[in-house]
Write a structure and sequence with these properties.
By secondary structure, this protein is α/β, with parallel strands linked by helices. It folds into 3 domains: 70 residues, Orthogonal Bundle (Arc Repressor Mutant, subunit A); 126 residues, ATPase, nucleotide binding domain (Nucleotidyltransferase, domain 5), CATH 3.30.420; 155 residues, Nucleotidyltransferase, domain 5 (2-Layer Sandwich), CATH 3.30.420.40. A hairpin with a 6-residue loop joins strand 5 and strand 6. 39% of the residues lie in helices and 20% in strands.
C-alpha cells in the first residue's frame, strides 16, 4: 500500500487548517480539531506554525459559559495583498484587496489603442496601487481577466482587442517578481459569485457585454474544457448562415443577444450612428416601441442560450449579468418564462449580485488561493474605496 510521507500529510493538514480558519471567519483550535477529525496536539502545532508565518492571528476569546474560554483564530488578512485587472476592449479596471477580499482600492484607465503598449500601462497602473509598507508579504499575486479564450495561462483568442502573443503574464511576472494568473472573465466571475454569494456546487454564470461568455462550476471545480474554450456560449450557432462573427463562424449567439448587438440593432432602428445602454433603457422605460422591440429580441435569443446551457450542463443555478437586467428584473423574468421545458423548471435563474466587480473579486480569489495554497474560499464582504 502506497502512503504519503509525513511531510506531505502535514502539508495537506496545514492547508485544511488554514482553509477552515478562513471559511469560518473565526474559530477555536478545539473546533478546528473537531471539524477536521485531527488531534488537538496536531492542530496546536500547525496553528503555531501559521502564527509564526504571520498568516493567522489570535483575536480574542469565544463567548461561552462553560469552563475556560477558547481563544479564537482568524486569517491575518493584512499579511499580503493581491491585484486583479479586468482588461476590457475600452477600459482597464484594477482592484487591490487584502487576503479576505476587503480593504479594496479600485482604479480605471482607458485601454490603450495599440495592444503592444498595454504592458507598460499595466506596470504603471499596478505601481500606482500602493500596497501598505507594513504588510509582511507585500504583493503576493496578480490576476488578469481576459475577454477571450485562455489556456495554460496564455491568451489564445480575444475577439475585440488582440492580446495574443504579447506575453502579458511573463513580462509582468518578471517585472514584479510575483505570480501572475490569467483567466477568462466569465470564469473569474463565477469564481467571485461562488466565493462571495452563491455557494453552489454546480453553477453557470452568463456574462453579457460586448460578447457573451459563460463561467462554469461543476462539482465545486471550475470547468474550462480541453483548451480553455468551455463556456464560449457566445460562439454557439443559433442562426445557420447568419451574421458574421469575429470568431470566423456565422450566426453566433453574441451577434444577436450581446449588449453590442442589441445596441447596434436599436441604433439602426432610430437612424443613429450608435447607442449606449443608458439611452436604450431610458427609452424602454418610456415604453418606446423600438426599445421594446430590441428588448424582445434580447429575451428571445437569451432564452435560447440559457435553455442550451441548462440542457448541456444541468447547473443548480444560472446567474445572469447584463446591463439590461441589472435594474429591470422583469426582463430576467421574461427570459425565465420563455423556458417552457419541464426539464428546466427546477433551476434557479438569478441576477448577478457582484455584477461587473465579480471579475475583479474572482481574480482576487484566484491570487489569494494561489498564495495560501487552499482550494476553497468563502468570503463575506467587499467594499471599494
Amino acid at each position: 500500500m502506497i502512503t504519503g510521507s509525513k511531510e506531505l500529510i502535514r502539508d495537506i493538514n496545514t492547508r485544511l487548517v488554514l482553509e477552515t480558519i478562513i471559511n469560518n471567519g473565526s474559530i477555536s483550535r478545539a473546533a478546528i480539531a473537531k471539524h477536521l477529525g485531527l488531534t488537538k496536539a496536531t492542530i496546536s502545532a500547525i496553528v503555531q506554525e501559521l502564527i509564526v508565518k504571520r498568516l493567522v492571528i489570535e483575536i480574542g476569546s469565544d463567548d461561552t459559559s462553560h469552563g475556560r474560554k477558547p481563544i479564537l483564530l482568524s486569517l491575518n488578512k493584512k499579511a499580503g495583498y493581491v491585484i486583479c485587472i479586468d482588461i476590457g476592449a475600452s477600459t482597464v479596471t484594477a482592484l487591490l484587496s487584502d487576503l479576505a477580499g476587503e480593504d479594496c482600492v479600485l482604479k480605471r484607465i482607458k485601454t490603450p489603442k495599440n495592444p503592444t503598449g498595454l504592458v507598460n500601462e499595466l506596470i504603471s497602473l499596478i505601481e500606482s496601487m500602493q500596497v501598505p509598507k507594513d504588510c509582511p508579504y507585500g504583493l503576493v499575486g496578480i490576476t488578469l481577466g481576459i475577454h477571450g479564450v485562455v489556456a495554460d495561462n496564455k491568451v489564445l483568442f480575444t475577439p475585440y482587442y488582440d492580446l495574443a502573443g504579447i506575453g502579458l503574464e511573463r513580462r509582468l511576472q518578471e517585472y514584479f517578481n510575483t505570480p501572475v494568473y490569467m483567466e477568462n472573465e466569465a470564469n473569474l466571475s463565477v469564481i467571485g459569485e461562488k466565493a462571495f454569494k452563491y455557494d453552489y456546487s454546480n453553477m453557470a454564470y452568463v456574462s453579457i457585454h460586448s460578447g457573451i461568455g459563460v463561467g462554469l462550476i461543476i462539482n465545486d471545480r471550475l470547468f474550462a474544457g480541453y483548451c480553455g474554450k468551455a463556456g464560449e456560449f457566445g460562439h454557439t450557432i443559433i442562426e445557420p448562415d447568419g451574421r458574421q462573427c469575429p470568431c470566423g463562424n456565422r450566426g453566433c449567439l453574441e451577434q444577436y443577444a450581446s449588449e453590442r448587438s442589441i445596441l447596434a440593432e436599436y441604433a439602426a432602428m432610430k437612424g443613429l450612428p450608435e447607442a449606449d445602454s443608458e439611452l436604450l433603457l431610458s427609452a424602454y422605460e418610456r415604453k418606446d416601441p423600438d426599445a421594446a422591440s430590441a428588448m424582445d429580441c434580447f429575451v428571445k435569443y437569451m432564452s435560447i442560450g440559457v435553455n442550451n446551457i441548462l440542457n448541456a450542463y444541468n447547473p443548480e443555478i444560472v446567474i445572469i449579468n447584463s446591463p439590461f437586467t441589472k435594474n429591470h428584473p422583469e426582463i430576467l423574468q421574461q427570459i425565465e418564462a420563455a423556458l417552457s421545458s419541464k426539464m428546466n423548471s427546477y433551476v434557479k435563474i438569478v441576477p448577478s449580485v457582484l455584477q461587473d466587480s465579480s471579475i475583479l473579486l474572482g481574480g482576487c480569489c484566484i491570487a489569494i488561493k494561489g498564495f495560501l495554497e487552499v482550494d476553497r474560499l468563502k468570503l463575506r464582504q467587499f467594499s471599494f474605496y
